[in-house]
## 1
Amino acid sequence: MEKNVVVRLARRPRGLVTREDFDIREEPVPEPREGEFRVRAEYLSLDPAMRGWMNEGRSYVPPIGIGEVMRGYAVGHVDVSKHKDFKPGDAVVGLFGAQRYALSNGSGVTRADPGLAPLETWVGGLGMPGLTAYFGLLEVGQAREGDTVVVSAASGAVGQVVGQIARIMGCRAVGVVGGQEKRRVALEEFGFDACVDYKAGGLSDQLNETCPQGIDVDFENVGGEIFDAVLAQMNRFGRVAVCGLISGYAATEAPPGLQNTRSILVNRLRVRGFIVFDFTSRYGEALNQLTEWHAAGKLRFREDVRSGGLAQFPEVLNLLFTGGNTGKLVLKLDR
Amino acid sequence: MEKNVVVRLARRPRGLVTREDFDIREEPVPEPREGEFRVRAEYLSLDPAMRGWMNEGRSYVPPIGIGEVMRGYAVGHVDVSKHKDFKPGDAVVGLFGAQRYALSNGSGVTRADPGLAPLETWVGGLGMPGLTAYFGLLEVGQAREGDTVVVSAASGAVGQVVGQIARIMGCRAVGVVGGQEKRRVALEEFGFDACVDYKAGGLSDQLNETCPQGIDVDFENVGGEIFDAVLAQMNRFGRVAVCGLISGYAATEAPPGLQNTRSILVNRLRVRGFIVFDFTSRYGEALNQLTEWHAAGKLRFREDVRSGGLAQFPEVLNLLFTGGNTGKLVLKLDR
């Protein structure tokens, strides 16, 4: 009889995660009660936010408790249902956690449509990362035709969508990535107008060359020195959408700190942090737009799908913080 | 025959200004041409922004050129006029510069009403600092009844007005100052609900005690470690009005940098830099409100008037950066 495989948080990690931070074990497959259904998850989404959820302390959601299932988005099919709105075979996305089988009462669950895009895209460009890009760029960043938009981690899950939407809106899209392969992907696959590789050095000069009109919108995924370099070249009345600060998530000591805060004052910038959850009531509108652009061939998605199942969870998660993935990072749960 | 006294920038200062950075000299009193009037300035406003104007490089206004009259606001009376809208005896405020006599074509000049408040108040609470407080708190900071508002440099030109408007709006006003005398002034003269003294140490603990409901609005005048400590205690969806970063203006080496940028993300803060000039079209509305509150006894102003005339300009200006003034710093130009 098949067993469930579950990743539970064993202790609070410090810096990058290690295998010892988790208890990855077989458990009985759970049975749904009335009003619940069971999902057989096929792809687990690996997101930078997951690292923050493991830390103690105040954040936008409570930390994962020790012994609890690692929180995470997954996509799969309904397997058994005692819920009136979900039937076996339905493709669904939700916070099912890092486990092979999950129970759900339907709360926060959305539908995937494998006819429109492969299953894994529904935790990527047509999932939370796509929605994050959409609201972050258009609502928080207020990107408008003619703007120069810089996005860090430009080949990542969110960045790739930001760049493409910026192009659709008539903006100049400039990516920041670490490494020449990511740069190639940003330029060739996602159509960025320009892309700078911070690992090649001279980031400020590179930004200056690729943003001759200055920067109107910074979609900030990284923080630290990259954020600082972009801040210094922002235009008057520019907007900064603070979506993520991944450079600090797995840091074991305090980073140098942001130097160019003076640019916020002198250029009258609007710097705004956001979480995609703040836009829940508008997910439908955004998803319609994203799927329409995708169907029209204007929006392409790239996933970096890793195999090995949940046993590989810690190693694969760390790729996000070491720059090891190119595209939306996903763990395939099927053996 | 009387001479003019003029402060000209002799070289670009480094850190605090010195006497050698300026050429303070007698010059002939200038004669107005058609469409101009001459002002005999009585009080020169000393503002933190003046230090920034002396630096080379991109800012919100061009730097003062070497050899040019030091830029600055002053208040005085029209002396001779060839301008149809201004007549001798009119009390006027404008960017007349650090000089005893100035010519003006009326551009950017506003009226002072010595019947409503002493002349020096028109470069303070009823001048740019008051307008800065008004727009910064209500428009940029979006302060609303019940909010906890923290303002740094709370006994200064802008801070004192911010605290009092916050109280008028039904907010909890918490000041941050350096020194016990400034703290006393903030509490007793301006009616802050609480005031912390960063020089007494334990700033974060002091903020925690005085802001038991967290911080909704930060009116930031100082930057550096004070900004960092406040950022860490901001409430979800809080606003930061970045008005000044005085801690860095006369710094000769890079300060440590802002550490708590994560709070911007997690708490979805809106951090916005502003300059009072951005609200020029609404000065009239604001000034009406400020004078009304002042006449009703709800708004008190404290100037720190220094004597000695323009010969003392460098030493008096430095007081702003060494914490030497309590209240709006003004230099009396009459001998």
## 2
Amino acid sequence: MSNHRPIGIFDSGLGGLTVAKEIYRLLPNESTIYIGDTARVPYGNRSREAVTQFTQELIDALLTLDVKAVVIACGTASSVALPNLQDAYKQIPIIGVIEPAAENAVSVTTSNHIGVIGTQATIASNSFGNFIKKSNPHIEIHNQSCPLFVPIVEEGIINDHPILLEAIKHYLNKLQQTQIDTLILGCTHYPIISHAIADYLPGVNLINAGVSVAQELNHLLINNHIENTSAKSPRHRYFVTDINQNFEEVAQTFLGKQISIEKIAI
Amino acid sequence: MSNHRPIGIFDSGLGGLTVAKEIYRLLPNESTIYIGDTARVPYGNRSREAVTQFTQELIDALLTLDVKAVVIACGTASSVALPNLQDAYKQIPIIGVIEPAAENAVSVTTSNHIGVIGTQATIASNSFGNFIKKSNPHIEIHNQSCPLFVPIVEEGIINDHPILLEAIKHYLNKLQQTQIDTLILGCTHYPIISHAIADYLPGVNLINAGVSVAQELNHLLINNHIENTSAKSPRHRYFVTDINQNFEEVAQTFLGKQISIEKIAI
């Protein structure tokens, strides 16, 4: 049995396109609808209440568009809001970035020291750490929030620019002095600068949550018998809650291709 | 005749507290109500439509609180929204940061080259430049948007940290090669880093829009006979649309003192 309905993906902004890219790669048959809440980005320094309300509004908007599953492609919304919302939306599978990336990190570490970087809200929630500890209490977690990485990436400063290198040094020098052999990129913007992070932390495995989520989504579609087995070309649609002047450049940064984006009211 | 009603001040976030500080200094009798739209900060990279809608909602909220005048302590809202809204709110004086700061810059320059720095939206609107050209068409304007300055200041990176110095070099090196003798700090966050900007552009007059706005507000209160001449201590109240964990630190950065902040629904 095949299911043509699209997969809903959302993020606070356009960073979740790095997750969408991994979903296209692993699940080339699946149609998708992406919503970026660009009127209220970034979520990373907002309160738990605000992030939970915004997340609910976006899930509701995707349900109205008849999606068959929802991917929360946002570290902050996955950390802060998903645990409170999963019960309220039993009619549809919802996956966030926390569990898939945490499982992946646990399976990769040999030193039993895992680093986690993310926004202020993600790190304050310790959601990656809590999940990892449940899986293996002997693993030590090294958390670090990196609030400037998102605006730096959105400015297109993604190569070896001194601003990026100074920010990496500022945030990651403590991690460099630990025994971590694995680092979770706990924000969907971070894969864009993974080369510079890898240069600063040589030998450390970087976990791209987008890759982990695409694998988890694949299992979920198969287990629920809702994968699209038709050979028809999939359709990918993109919505944002506010259209600003340079979003097309930013989208190209994340996705590596040009897309056309429509405005949606939430 | 005296008027005890407060002055309403708003900004997208807490940066407008630099303007509030100058108002307290020049008008120590006046009570104020400050609203920071922290649920939707930053405005600088949002569309004109979004910024106009947010600005209307904030003015309406201040009117409900019975203010006698409104100060738009936000470069972006002043640039993008105020010109369209002044007619709609004839019942109350509204002043933004553009005209006072532009007038101040015109009166100070002798080289007739004025630099303007601000958010993406402020610079794209060229609102400072348009006002200056109306006043003196012989003045040449040098615009530069500096999107990373706001998140850097909000991270508390305000001293001579390499991230700040690299960002200043990145954005201001073109201005260094012009004949500007005056630079408008077109965003309320920027006075916090004016010492580092001054070091990079020695001999250039920096125009703090907060100081210009306080002077303009003083004239406006006197001309409208609505100044508070009572000797009673003024009251200053602070509202935000979202309360996050580190706003008190950020407020202290801007205002130089601790304050208590309440949440308001917009």
